[in-house]
Write a structure and sequence with these properties.
Elements lengths: L2 H16 L1 E9 L5 E8 L7 H18 L7 E5 L10 H6 L4 E10 L2 E12 L2 E6 L2 E6 L3 E6 L5 H11 L3
Parallel strand pairs: 2-3
Antiparallel strand pairs: 1-2, 4-5, 4-8, 5-6, 6-7
Helix pairs in contact: 1-2
Length: 166
């Protein structure tokens, strides 16, 4: 049983009702685990500290009632940040044209790390254009994927804000 998937199913409707979407749920640690909830606004605007505080309060109440994690744990609510993780198939289409890094569990064409421009998704394969050419990476083989930090992250963020792109 995947505890993080269960927790995501539990909290997603509450976040959605508040105008937020789940980007990633991650549970880590030993004796006092940390539950990390990464979220984004559904209206595409940036996440503020007040947004994180509001969601943290709501999730704390929900998690206290439902009690999906035995014992004590820390709850950490955050925005995806500038190097946003790509966690769902739709993310690879949504961020097509952006620089990303993709790491695989097994070698694909002799490599496990790809950095380049996301071309999109074709069925169950992520397409990424690297310096060596375009590669197709099966979704099931992706261990970790995230947007790459650009050399001008502030300028890129400002451009996306002005054009309404995410």
């Amino acid at each position: 049983m995947d505890k993080t998937a269960d927790i995501e199913r539990l909290i997603a409707p509450a976040l959605d009702a508040m105008g937020y979407g789940v980007v990633r749920v991650h549970l880590s640690g030993g004796r006092r685990p940390t539950l990390q909830v990464m979220m984004e606004r559904l209206d595409g605007r940036g996440i503020s500290v007040d947004d994180c505080a509001e969601v943290s309060r709501a999730l704390s109440a929900l998690l206290d009632v439902e009690d999906p994690i035995a014992g004590t744990y820390a709850l950490e609510v955050s925005s995806p940040g500038i190097d946003r993780p790509l966690t769902r198939p739709a993310d690879f289409a949504r961020f097509a044209g952006r620089e990303a890094t993709v790491e695989t569990r097994v070698p694909i064409s002799g490599r496990k790390r790809f950095r380049g421009r996301l071309v999109g998704i074709d069925g169950d394969r992520v397409r990424i254009a690297t310096a060596e050419g375009e590669s197709e990476v099966p979704l099931g083989d992706i261990q970790r994927a995230k947007l790459a930090l650009s050399e001008t992250p502030v300028a890129d963020a400002e451009k996306r804000r002005k054009t309404g792109a995410r």
